[in-house]
Design a protein that fits this description.
This protein is an alpha/beta fold. The protein has a domain of 163 residues: Leucine-rich repeat, LRR (right-handed beta-alpha superhelix) (Alpha-Beta Horseshoe), CATH 3.80.10.10. It has ten helices and twelve strands. Helix 5 links the parallel strand 6 and strand 7. Helix 5 packs parallel to helix 6 and helix 6 runs parallel beside helix 7.
Length: 290
């Protein structure tokens, strides 16, 4: 057996204690199960799953105390800690997982300090830090993860200065910065340096139609979302983007009162990019660029 899906079941620590030796198991999904620190310790300390490459612990009872066992799964390339009781303190145990390629985090207890523990992950391609307390200081740490292709930093405190740091991630294909209310047109201007971008989400930020002249340099862009951004005229946006972005297939805009998708071929876009994408609707405030 190489894959075991136990998500949304009644599995608890006591049930997992019956697992003693599963050397062929590569993927284990415990999403929303009632297990936690003890179960992870049992699997790690007793070498129950020595060849595990994918582990989903989303919405389990895992805490910082149990994170010490994560370091023993040295072959992991995919890990989800979505909606666990993990803080910056627990993230320090991720630094030894040098094979990790995909990491999913979601916790209000994760901040800039925690991201410092990720800079030693040379193969990390996809990172999701939804609802974390991330500012431009955290973006400094992330700028060292040059292998990143997909990055989601929604609902934090990222500003234009943070965008400037992220602009050094030259391999980014997908970037979601929605719900960062300190990002203005200056931030969009900095992101224009990401020449490989195919998907960009700036929904519910402070960018307006003035940002489109910067984004028009992203000639590979296929999907752009700017829900909740004020001061964007649909007809003007359509003309500018049609002329400057020949690859664009999905454009999602609204002016706060109505919600109109100018055109949408999202499924096709996501398939082309071959990355997992979730389109979701700082320091000091800066004035919008003209």
């Amino acid at each position: 057996m190489e894959t075991l899906e136990l998500c949304y079941s009644g599995v608890k620590d006591s049930h997992l204690s019956r697992f003693t030796h599963l050397p062929s198991l590569k993927e284990l999904n415990l999403d929303s199960c009632g297990c936690g620190d003890w179960a992870l310790g049992h699997l790690a300390d007793n070498c129950v799953v020595p060849n595990l490459t994918s582990l989903d612990l989303a919405d389990t009872n895992l805490t910082d105390a149990g994170m010490v066992h994560i370091a023993k799964f040295t072959k992991l390339n995919k890990l989800s800690l979505f909606y666990c009781n993990i803080s910056n303190h627990g993230l320090r145990h991720l630094s030894s997982l040098t094979n990790l390629e995909v990491l999913n985090l979601d916790s209000r207890d994760i901040s800039d300090e925690g991201l410092a523990h990720l800079v030693g992950l040379p193969n990390l391609r996809s990172l999701d830090v939804f609802s974390g307390r991330i500012t431009h200081y955290g973006c400094i740490h992330l700028s060292r993860l040059t292998s990143l292709e997909s990055l989601e930093l929604c609902g934090g405190g990222i500003s234009d200065r943070g965008c400037a740091h992220l602009a050094s991630l030259e391999n980014l294909v997908s970037l979601n910065l929605s719900q960062n209310e300190h990002i203005t047109n200056r931030g969009a201007a900095a992101l224009a340096a990401l020449s490989k971008l195919k998907c960009l989400n700036l929904s519910n930020t402070r960018v307006n139609s003035g940002a489109l002249r910067f984004l028009s340099s992203l000639t590979q862009l296929k999907s752009l979302a700017m829900y909740g951004c004020h001061g964007i005229d649909d007809s003007e946006s359509m003309n500018a983007l049609q002329n400057g972005l020949p690859s664009l297939k999905c454009l999602r805009l609204n002016n706060g009162s109505d919600d109109r998708e100018l055109w949408d071929d999202y499924d096709h876009v996501a398939a082309d990019i071959d990355l997992e994408l979730y389109m979701m609707d700082g320091d000091e405030d800066m004035e919008d660029a003209d």
